[in-house]
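quick one: magnesium ion bound model?
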Amino acid sequence: MGGKLRCLSHRLIVGVDFGTTYSGVSYVPTNMTARDVIVIKNWPGPGRFTDVNNKTPSRIAYPEENSGLTSPSFGFNVTAKMKSYTWFKLRLDRSATTMYDDPDLRQSEGDGVLKLPRFKTATQVCGDYMKEIYQFTMRILDARFSADVLRITPIEFWFTVPAIWSDSAKSNTQQAARLAGFGTRHGDHVNLISEPEAAAITALSRVTTGGSEVQVAPGDRVLICDCGGGTVDITTYLIKAVQPELDFEELLVGEGGKCGSTYIDRLFIQWMTATFGEAFTSIPFERRGPGSKFMQEFEFCKRDFGLVQDPLAEHQITLAMEGADESQNYDADEGKVTFSSEDLESWFRPVVEKILAMLGEQMRQSQLHSGQPINKILLVGGFGDSQYLLQSLRQQIAVVRGAAIRGLGGIMVKSRRCRRHYGFQLDLPYDPSVDDARHKYVSQFNGRTYSRGTMVWKVKRGEKIDENTFICQTVSKPWYKHETLVFKLPFYSCSADIPPRREDHPRVHKIGEVVVDLRNANLNRFKKRWKFRQDSYIYNLQYELQIMFAQREGVLLREGVLFVRAKNGNDIFGKAYIEYDTE
Ligand SMILES: Nc1ncnc2c1ncn2[C@@H]1O[C@H](COP(=O)(O)OP(=O)(O)OP(=O)(O)O)[C@@H](O)[C@H]1O
Ligand SMILES: [Mg+2]
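yep, here:
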């Protein structure tokens, strides 16, 4: 009994690192410390390598398309012979683009490299994959804590998401996790954490505990460059304290792009297509797409690149291609594709250059905004293991390799920098000095002149945000009795340095609509006037909208945290939630 009571008083923290190419799970009970984080290592399946068992491939095969299967197969269980899907995470975010993205990413969807089964959306495929992860994780936890204890222990799940992701992509991730079953037990919760932040927590807790290649001290400005399969994320932190507890805050708005290590794979696939044409593209996807034996062999070439310094070295990969002629790139007898180190380098180069450009920009920003240089650069993530990448970066800047993401230690960054400007489009009193007369109109309620559709940016890019940050906006709406009491307020973001005054600017993106529901409000609280011509009252529905930055959930807004308050009262008289735009 005593044991049970103790279990009730704590929770389990489970970190889910859902990656483009690999995913991993770690956990720690709240009554333990960061050092006790346990990483799930025994991922099932015959295809597992000995060295990377702490993560399982982000790959799924469906029974509908594979005759031997009765249920979906995931991770190492998916063999090269199966028709399978991977890199689906990249499909969750189609709207947020940065200047550092792989320019061919969108095109790859058409090429089929990033394809999805015809019968599923990206969120569903991610959900299906996460469901396998969920079930396996729950089985492991079950074995570890016993079913009875697990049943009464609330679990807090933390999903990692790239920092560059749009709000709708984050909402998609939440949705996929729910579909998968995460957070569906009573008391369980799904939160999101940005990948560089998760990386920072682990990397920084390592470097403060001694014995590592790099040491950090209070006052240090540490840049963490997380190079994954899909994205590269850069964030800079100011170390505030190391003892008794690590404390750091985000110093600048980070940089990032969809230019991870799979960009190299896509360039290689493009080269194959350009070199061999139909002889290559007519091969079934299972034999040449990501996850095939062919691409696995390429993976080894990629990983080894830079370990030996031999510019003349050649690389060979087995692939039987009917109709491909013997050439310097193809040995038809043996069925082997050959390429040079120079070729391989040409696929690495654009990625390395983008990473260098991002690092340069971040260092410049640090100097600009704080007058202080970044003094430590840590390279983390799977692609961060690349010797070639490390050497190329070292030619220009001093970087060290950080610890790989091993799990979330349960320490949180207290504040971070807002990545985008957020705001509404509102009708403001007309100001002839700045407003265009085209947008001018006269209010039906009070007869005053307003300018339609001016952007009001409520939170600025670069601003510090924390658990308590919220946006507050007073909204007035002239309303006749027969009209609807459910209003939709478009909500916008912008990542330009200086946000524009109007919404039709190319850098302004509509992220969704705040739906305000005043159907249960007491209308007598609002001002009203009799309108003879309409033979009806016109009300001025004036209310205050509060939008929380749901830090823990990682999403900007969620249902239940949007308050609608009466102007002069303190009571909440309506509800509001956000509907994200889907493409
Ligand atoms: N030594 C290496 N050289 C080059 N690339 C490597 C090396 N080791 C791993 N990679 C690449 O790193 C990627 C895996 O890294 P990681 O597990 O951090 O990514 P992820 O979590 O799947 O992706 P993301 O975080 O971007 O969604 C793969 O694309 C893999 O090919
Ligand atoms: Mg990752």
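The first strand starts at residue 12 and ends at 18.
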